Amino acid sequence: MKQSDDGLYMPSFQLNQVIRSASVGKVVASANPAFEVGDIVSGFYQVSEYAIVPGGGLRKIDTSVAKPSDYLGLLGMPALTAWSGFTIVGEPNPGDEVFVSAAAGSVGMLVGQLAKIKGCRVVGSAGSDQKVKLLKEEFGFDDAFNYKSETDWDAALARYFPRGIDIYFDNVGGRMLEAVLNNINMKARIPLCGMISQYNQEWKQRFGVRNLLNLVGKCVKMEGFMCGQYLHRMGEFLEEMTGYIKEGKLKYKEDVKEGLDSFLEAFNSMFSGDNLGKPVIYLGPPQ
Amino acid sequence: MKQSDDGLYMPSFQLNQVIRSASVGKVVASANPAFEVGDIVSGFYQVSEYAIVPGGGLRKIDTSVAKPSDYLGLLGMPALTAWSGFTIVGEPNPGDEVFVSAAAGSVGMLVGQLAKIKGCRVVGSAGSDQKVKLLKEEFGFDDAFNYKSETDWDAALARYFPRGIDIYFDNVGGRMLEAVLNNINMKARIPLCGMISQYNQEWKQRFGVRNLLNLVGKCVKMEGFMCGQYLHRMGEFLEEMTGYIKEGKLKYKEDVKEGLDSFLEAFNSMFSGDNLGKPVIYLGPPQ
Fold first, then answer.
1. What is the pLDDT of residues A36-58, one digit of tens each?
2. With contacts defined as CB-CB under 8 Å, which chain A residues touch B205?
3. Are A9 and B211 an interchain contact pair (Cβ–Cβ within 8 Å)?
4. How does pLDDT run across A162-199, given as a tens digit for each residue?
5. Which of these, B172, B164, B169, B171, lies nearest to B218 by C-alpha position?
6. B64: distance to nearest CA of chain A, Å?
7. N or C end of chain B, less CB within 10 A?
8. Where is the Enoyl reductase (ER) domain (chains A, B) (predicted)?
9. pLDDT digits over A230-247, tens only?
């Protein structure tokens, strides 16, 4: 993965450059014998109605298991992120107390469902009552809360986790991470997936976490990861996840917009929290 | 290990209570068939010339390998801490770039020597020029610096680690941890041994580390540990360390004081940095 200097895992967008994104598409012309017209493919390429993409950057997808856009979410990068971060970095045990922030996001909603599948108790935080309802009623979270309605996150976590937190799947960083560290259990694991509260500032302006000493006294592991580290386990990942899909154990929610002009709104919704589910944009003919 | 609520791994001293410490002593009377008068033992018990200690809290030590006080340092808790933190949590590879803070301390001086034994390049920080000299000339560190003489730790680490840092053995926390995270390599490991810069404040007054996002972008593992987690590997530890001692590969330095009245000075020296080596107090007859 490309690495920028400010701790982000993706280079910043540049003015006057084409924006790239995880995408699925249909081959309409091919100069590569590995791909035929009509193939459905996924890759990380430019956001546009038509794109010329080197074959090495594309993968054919199996639409008998899931619909094409599922390869952006339910079986795509967010899912590999949820699966690798939760099961490999998080090392869940049955009975573990699991907290997920940004739980209604494209990764979080899968982490919660994986936690239930692994026999854990899971609570999620999200930024609207509608998302909280979704977590509890659609995705089977044991509980969930709207972080915008809670004035004291330390106290909220103490209330939702009377037995403390064993795994914190961190999507937000900052003050929520600090609140978690005040409610953390011995030998807890904290997979660091992202810190969306911290992206759009210069590092010296970011929130300083004051209670890292709790990591020492409680022997906690906090580990950053990216799904790109686990590409070699893609086979295992797809087998496990498609198994759950066939058993009806995994649900997913997309927030679908149409047309190239909706990109900015869809992108910004991840920061404002206005999205409900994984933002997906349909380009080309209406579905 | 007992766990206090403020993230410390030892309960705070209480007024009007006897202070306890890692100790070695000679048995002068025994009501336990497992111990005979004259046995040399180690344990964690009260700081006094004579102490009554339950047999379960004591371990006989082998003075043919090392002198009694070595079981407080070179083969004691600091050594198990250095060994388990560096080799198990730190996962060193030959060629790794290793940074140790409080490197002239009872744990740090062993971490640096273990790093050299494992084929790493190691740089230490310490709080006086005398300690820096000790690290380079006695303990074989590749380089060392006096953190009190450096005004910009980010820049200092960039200078000492042009190839970045693969393992940071953290004894101090706070601002130095932040500087390290600005110089950290992909997939680095940070065993959190202690955060001596942060102990004597209420948590909200502690230094807030602002660049934890680097843990995400660089897939870094940061893990708190205590040597008590690794007591089951004591046999392996003793075998490896006594091997190095016999081969002349490990040195140790004690800062010896005499008499009970020197306790306060010896203890405080760990915070002021006035000690040169592991603080040890001889009680009883002069050695």
1. 999 999 999 999 999 999 878 89
2. 210
3. no
4. 999 999 999 999 999 999 999 999 999 999 999 888 88
5. B164
6. 34
7. C
8. 3-281
9. 999 999 999 999 999 999
- Residues B220 and B140 both lie in one domain: yes
Chain B, nearest residue to A211 by Cα: B203
Which of A212, A215, A227 should be substituted to probe chain B, the one whose Cβ sees the most B Cβ atoms within 10 Å?
A212
> What single-letter DSSP state applies at residue A142?
S
Amino acid at A137: E
Q: Establish if A269 belongs to a structural domain.
A: no
For residue A93, what is the domain's CATH number?
3.40.50.720
Residue whose token pair is 């996924």: A42
| DSSP structural state of residue A85 | I
CA nearest neighbour of B54 among B37, B38, B26, B31: B31
For chain A, positions 228-267, list CB contacts with chain B under 8 A.
229
Residues of B whose CB is below 8 A from A209: 208-210, 212
Percentage of residues in chain A with pLDDT exceeding 90?
80
The C-alpha torsion from B22 through B26 and B27 to B28, rounded to 10°, is -130
Tell me whether residue A53 is in a domain: no
Please say if the pLDDT value at position A159 is more than 90: yes
Rg of the Cα atoms in chain A:
19
Residues B89 and B64 grouped into a single domain: no
The percent of residues in chain B predicted with pLDDT above 70, rounded, is 96
CATH number at residue B29: 3.90.180.10
By the 8 A CB rule, do A45 and A57 touch?
A: yes
Is the residue at B238 inside a domain? no
This complex has an ipTM of 0.89
Asked if B6 has any chain A CB less than 8 Å from its own CB, the reply is: yes
B39, B104: one domain:
no
Kindly state whether B162 is in contact with chain A, defined as any CB-CB distance less than 8 angstroms. no
B83 and B200 inside one domain = yes
Where in the sequence is the domain holding A194, given as residue range(s)?
77-228
Q: Is A173 on the interface with B (CB under 8 A)?
A: yes
Give me the number of domains chain B comprises. 2
Distance from CA of A273 to the nearest CA of B (A): 20
* Token pair in block for residue B99: 């940074």
In a domain, A43, yes or no: no
Chains A, B: CB pairs < 8 Å: 138
Asked whether the predicted pLDDT for residue B225 surpasses 50, the reply is yes
Q: A58's torsion region: left (phi>0), alpha (psi -120 to 50) or beta?
A: beta
Residues of chain B contacting A229 with CB distance shorter than 8 Å: 219
Which pLDDT band holds residue B270 (cuts at 50, 70, 90)?
confident
